[in-house]
Amino acid sequence: MDRRWVGPYGYEIVPAVRAGRQVLRIRKHGWLIADCVSVAEVARHVDLADLCEVIALPMDRRYKAAG
User: Fold this and answer.
1) Which residues share a beta bridge with 13?
2) Tens digits of per-residue pLDDT, 2-49?
3) How far apart are CA 42 and CA 20, in angstroms?
4) Under 8 Å CB-to-CB from 41, ≥6 apart: which residues?
């Protein structure tokens, strides 16, 4: 899973590549808000202190759903 951060009010920030350059893509409720080239740009849209990184935890095989 790639890195991503979520915040209040439906904000999500994910790394992306635009025109060969890495950006931080901001979405709100799935809608594209901005592609930012710096963290300072992200801070213009959302309070950085409100963001939480989403971390995928390894799944215990004992609890894996039968497929």
Assistant:
1) 5, 26
2) 789 999 999 999 999 999 999 999 999 999 999 999 999 999 999 999
3) 19
4) 24, 34
- Label residue 64 by pLDDT band (50, 70, 90): low
Maximum alpha-carbon separation in the chain? 45
- The one-letter amino acid at 36: C
The pLDDT assigned to 4 comes to 93
Any idea what DSSP says for residue 4?
A: -
Angle at 17 between CA 47 and CA 55, to 5 degrees: 55
Cβ neighbours for 7, distance < 8 A, ≥ 6 positions apart? 13, 46, 47, 50, 51, 52
Residue 36: its H or E element = strand 31-36
